[in-house]
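RECORD TYPE: inverse folding
INPUT: structure tokens
STRUCTURE:
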């Protein structure tokens, strides 16, 4: 299953990038700020997003996903802004995909914060090709760390890079946990716990475990699960909402923020501009104890 992660990361990455580009063209700044997302998509996809009727069709077709992904992206950017304000030294984006945060949020004034994008080499190569074609400059403080999930561990690749395990670090782990195994989730949490300073944080989202059995109880779950199965990348892992606190405590973490989909939407999406977000995932920020 780990081999599929290599090809998979780029497919789901394109999907999330697509949702951010839709929002940028549909509602514009300052509501949706990802002005680079559109440039990372194929010319054909870009044309469809720019075409008003087609864009509205796409939004209608995937509305719970569209709203959720944009709310989650705002939430993750908020964590990055906080880390930057606290003058933390390192930000690690795990499974970075087509994330554009580093290219938008880091001016020279924040050059001391080192950013690491960790991903499969194929995904990174694609992304860099698109960035170059769009004339997006790569900040000096950004480091690409390639990982072959079949044969390398996070510790292997991170400790071989300029990453410093003794510093306060923010880890962004967006849209990943539910596509990998329980053991892979565990080893990532163990790496962060072991190789970052106390008080470092990891921000991630997870599927409520009971949604696997009771999809109809959660808004957007029936269509969400069906879609990922249809594209051959089914959801594989969840955590019980009531147990996430003890799950993380056992692994050496303390929850500092925990939002449901509804809370995420009301906190980050301007009312009236987005449809209702799906509600079968939770978003956690946890600190290393």
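DESIGNED SEQUENCE:
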């Amino acid at each position: 299953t780990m081999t599929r992660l290599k090809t998979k990361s780029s497919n789901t990455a394109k999907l999330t990038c697509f949702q951010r580009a839709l929002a940028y063209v549909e509602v514009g700044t300052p509501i949706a700020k990802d002005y680079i997302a559109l440039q990372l998509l194929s010319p054909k996809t870009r044309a469809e997003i720019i075409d008003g009727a087609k864009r509205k069709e796409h939004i209608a077709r995937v509305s719970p996903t569209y709203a959720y992904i944009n709310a989650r992206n705002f939430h993750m950017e908020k964590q990055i802004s906080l880390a930057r304000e606290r003058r933390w030294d390192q930000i690690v984006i795990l499974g970075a995909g087509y994330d554009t945060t580093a290219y938008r949020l880091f001016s020279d004034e924040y050059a001391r914060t080192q950013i690491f994008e960790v991903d499969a080499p194929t995904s990174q190569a694609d992304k860099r090709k698109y960035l170059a074609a769009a004339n997006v400059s790569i900040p000096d403080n950004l480091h690409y760390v390639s990982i072959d999930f079949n044969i390398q561990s996070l510790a292997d690749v991170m400790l071989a890079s300029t990453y410093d395990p003794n510093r306060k670090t923010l880890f962004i782990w967006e849209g990943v946990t539910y596509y990998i195994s329980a053991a892979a989730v565990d080893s990532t949490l163990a790496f962060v716990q072991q190789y970052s300073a106390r008080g470092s944080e990891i921000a991630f989202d997870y599927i409520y475990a009971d949604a696997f059995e009771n999809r109809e109880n959660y808004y957007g779950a029936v269509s969400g699960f069906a879609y990922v199965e249809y594209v051959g990348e089914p959801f594989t892992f969840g955590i019980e909402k009531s147990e996430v606190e003890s799950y993380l405590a056992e692994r050496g973490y303390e929850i500092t923020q925990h939002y449901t989909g509804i809370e995420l939407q009301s906190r980050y999406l301007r009312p009236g501009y987005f449809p209702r977000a799906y509600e079968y995932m939770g978003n956690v920020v946890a600190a290393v104890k």
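NOTES: Residues 1-5 have pLDDT under 50 and may be disordered.
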